[in-house]
Design a protein that fits this description.
The strands form 2 sheets. Strands 4-1-5-10-9-6-7-8 form an 8-stranded parallel sheet, sandwiched between helices. The N and C termini lie close together (about 10 Å). The protein is built from 11 helices and 10 strands. It has a single domain, classed as Arginase, Chain A (3-Layer(aba) Sandwich).
Length: about 350
Amino acid sequence: MALSMVWSADCLQHDPAGEVWVGVHTPGTERPARATVVREAVLAAGATEVPAAAHPDSDLLAVHDAALLDHLRTVHAEWVAAGLPADPGQPQVVPYLFPTAGLLAGLPLRRATAVHARAGRFCYDTMTLVGAGTWAAARGAADAALTAADLVTAAGARVVFAACRPPGHHAGPDSFGGSCYLNNAALAAQALRRAGHERVAVVDVDAHHGNGTQAVFYDRGDVLYCSVHVDPGAGWFPHYVGFADETGRGDGVGATRNAPLPPGADDRPWLDAVRSLAAAVAGHGAGALVVSLGVDAAADDPESPLQVSPDAYHAAGTELAALGLPVVAVLEGGYHLPTLGPLVVATLEGLTGSVSA
């Protein structure tokens, strides 16, 4: 497989050791081994590894608010300084209070004095914990995505894969959640725009809607966001966002396309949706493509009810490759470790026109 894979070893530093879901601490599925098995599988398929290059904070600020970056950079050290790992015995930053509109009742949002109260200032769920290595890992993932965009724009590569971990498509301009901290796909899309592509498209094939990516570009017409995912109206994350009637706002009207699928949907409806989104990309006139490459729609994955096969992932890659655009593929979800690597490889082989040995 003639492909560059961008890798940052920093991605392994984030080890949340579980998550808090409906008030219960569970083992969680977003673990460092995800990145390891993907890296090994993609290299075994013939890819060339490229180290992620450090990028300036200005690249992150093109997508995310400075206050969010400061929070992610400092909150764990503040948590430790406040003694919370000893009392009550929680080593990870876990939100317990969220400054919602209902709480504020129209009053200005102030900075909470207690760090345990600030933990929910930017995070919108209790699953997305911050530990000692979270910022380094999120920064490494962002650098991987940005380096992949550089390889497309400066080096002329046709397809580049960024093995990002933690994933990113649930992180918004000033929010994080869904096991995502910085939006790697949005950073890549913005970098492609900055490099001169007047229009860019993001196609998100993760099993869950990329609410963060949609939020970044919802008011813009230059970046088309397209997603195929399990219907949030059927009770799946992110629950409140990802419906078909969300099509953009202001200058972005028509530049968001959502294709929610019912639980249990298999190859045929999923591929039909991918083809529809590919047609939307062609109609948008995009000059470059970012693929949010989540493979958790696969039948064996524990985090979604979709039933997509490896052959369908390969076919999806082939459909998107037919657009003839330079591609930055960014790893998102996928949590069944025995099949995670082969599923990513199948999609990348479709994108590159490769055939398995």
